[in-house]
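Progress narrative, work stream C.
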Amino acid sequence: MFLRETVLKKAGVEYRYWRLVKTYWDKKLKKVRHKTVAQLGKLKPEEIRMFKKTISGEAGKNFSWEELMARKSFEYLGVAILDRIWKYWELDKVIANKVVEVLAINRCLSPKSDYQVSDWYKETILPKLLGETVNPTRVYRTLDEIYEQSWKIQEHLHRKIRELKLDDYELIFYDITSSYFEQSECELAKYGLSRDHRRDKKQIILALAVTKKGFPFYWKVFPGNMADTKTVKEFVSELTERFGIKKACLVMDKGMVSNSNLEKIEADEFDYVVTLRRSSIALIADMPWKHLRSIDESNVEKKKEYFQYHTCRAYYKELKRGC
């Protein structure tokens, strides 16, 4: 290994650049060749002497910690781990546009506005890992692409959860939330029941379904004025038609409960666990109010015989639905 100098002349002025060169034997051409290991640029005389001494094996200058200074640092560990997770799920094979991965990793580590993502990207190791140029224009175009491929992504995640044996679909949790806008021309943005207590703002409804271990495989955006109960029938239909799930227990909160929804769930032969409003509980015909009110510390063991055992802390009784 040795230093090689390159001299360039421009407008009568000489410019000298240095590079570190390695010698190797080319088996095909059967001769010695040279390969540039690193471009060193302009070097001061003392730097040239230091490099030559180091290459020749002579002792170079000893630096103290006070003399060492990092010119620039890049966010690495969190970015590298999430890049590995992205590839573990083989999302890079489903989504060719690498900017999608950049946006996903940014949302996990340091959420920025769409315009600021490209600046954040340059401060991470991602340019080295992905080899992509990211700018605000590409980010905006990518957002439309993500929306168009949402069904494809969901079906891929559903399949990978099974293939990787990470979870089954015996138990599925479904819930919705809302997100409001300060100003928006979005067609889906409507005034509705706000979880953020901002009834004065237009909002959208976000629906999400996950497996019992928390792996997401279904999501959808609904108009902001859609009632919780109206999202359930569409969700149940998607489970059977798109994902091919024929048997599962759906877990939902009381906002999803209605007679028509429960009838739809039962018609598709799904089980369900839902909470009920007090007013709905009162409508259950064979609710054992008398038995429940008679339970106290002195007779609790005897009264438990009325119920069916589930666990040491949970007993249940099947009743007819009357809500």
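Work stream C, second folded protein:
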Amino acid sequence: MQFMSLDLINIAINKGGKIYASISGGKDGDAMVETLVKNGYSIAGLVHADLGRVEWPESLPQCLKCSDKFGIPLHVVTRTDGADMLQHWQNRLEKVRGTGKPFWSSKSNRYCTSDLKRDPINRFYTSTGDTLIINCEGIRAQESDDRAAREPLTIRWRKTSNYYTYKASDIESRKSVEIPMTVEEALEVYDPRYKLALDWYPIFNYSVADVWATMGLTPEDLIAARMIYSITGVVPSWWTFHPAYAYGNDRVSCMFCIMGTVNDLGNAAVHNPGLLDEMIAMEIDGNATFQGKKSLSVFKI
């Protein structure tokens, strides 16, 4: 945890801020909740954006296990139209059919994140009635250069009132412009009549070893869990993180993630060949491979 961020988080809590933790069932979300609880932070709720059939079937049970362990309510959110990620891709395929536009998500067009995670979570935050929200996510700098470039505490502008902006005049256009406040400035002028939401990454500086350690495990324990599973087909009971890590995954998100590695996609193909077939059929129907020029058909056994 970062000292500057902690100071501001404590100010927010003292002003009535409510902490919510966004979890997917993956290791970083679990480690984040463990860290928050062990450091004495009260979590108002866990929030899981359910992407449906593309998720590992063990993901929701993993979230429920975290909820039960700490007695924190779990809120499962979805799109208002009921479409899961697979149906959302199918709907987009029909919408762009014949235009040459992509229908799969991509690194530059991650509507899997915006449409099925961020937007449903924002609607949930509206429903709570809370006016000072601290949304926690298990983002770590070590994961990628893009994530390392982020700030560990920012304002979640899509759920924040423009009350927390400065009004100024643009000399060239002669129009009024809004300049966003910093987190520190927004907290200083916080008024419960105007919603303020923050995004906080409590384990931003954690290494992978730090993540496993939150549940008393080590990288060597992961190797052992994978060996036991490969021999017996059973995940050992002492492995408390998502079972997919014991299956061999390095990351746990969607079973077939547009950012997934060859290892993780291949592992998903073994564990859900039916989903693989369905997505290959969509590649053929939409004349577009899942990962740029890489087709999921290479994982067909």
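The two ends are 44 Å apart (CA to CA). No further action is required on this item.
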